[in-house]
Design goal:
The protein is α+β, with helices and mostly antiparallel strands. It is about 35% helix and about 15% strand. A hairpin with a 3-residue loop joins strand 1 and strand 2 (about 15-20). The radius of gyration is 17 Å and the shape is globular.
């Protein structure tokens, strides 16, 4: 995966590009993409690996401080050849949670809650359910849910300004 245009690019380091996911309408949905073209972590140059942990931490703090999501999911997904190795930073705002809970189609996922020991009795959802909602509704749906809060452009501007103030 590479930065498709400069408006999506948040910042770059020697080994990584941090950008807004081009097909996402969810403000602040970032990708941290390796500049080295590989799909496997073990194939990354040692310098890229050394830079990775600190960068993951820096992006998490930046997003939590600036965008203030209720939750922030960070992960590496996928099994297809093609896009370079990358991480997803998915901000889950309170209005995303409300939209998910109000969408009756996603209630069918409860049939897959198999725990009967009461450990998760009070939970309304888990991360995989919300992640599915974000991917389907904010990345694929031609008529995505209404955005509450800053637009993508505003979120990127806030993130860039904060990054530039703390990067030096």
């Amino acid at each position: 995966m590479s930065a498709s245009s400069s408006e999506h690019l948040l910042f770059e380091t020697e080994h990584w590009s941090i950008l807004h996911r081009p097909d996402a309408v969810l403000p602040g949905y970032l990708l941290m993409c390796a500049k080295q073209n590989t799909t496997h972590l073990w194939e990354l140059q040692s310098e890229a690996l050394a830079e990775m942990g600190g960068l993951l931490s820096k992006i998490q703090k930046l997003m939590m401080d600036v965008l203030k999501p209720q939750y922030l999911y960070i992960g590496r997904y996928g099994h297809l050849k093609g896009p370079s190795f990358h991480f997803h930073f998915i901000p889950i705002y309170d209005w995303v949670v409300k939209g998910f809970l109000a969408d009756e189609r996603y209630r069918s996922l409860k049939q897959f809650h198999y725990r009967t020991d009461g450990v998760f009795a009070d939970r309304q959802f888990d991360a995989s359910e919300l992640q599915l909602y974000v991917w389907r509704e904010f990345c694929e749906n031609p008529k995505p849910p209404k955005i509450h809060g800053p637009s993508i452009e505003e979120a990127m501007s806030l993130l860039k300004n904060s990054y530039n103030q703390t990067a030096h």
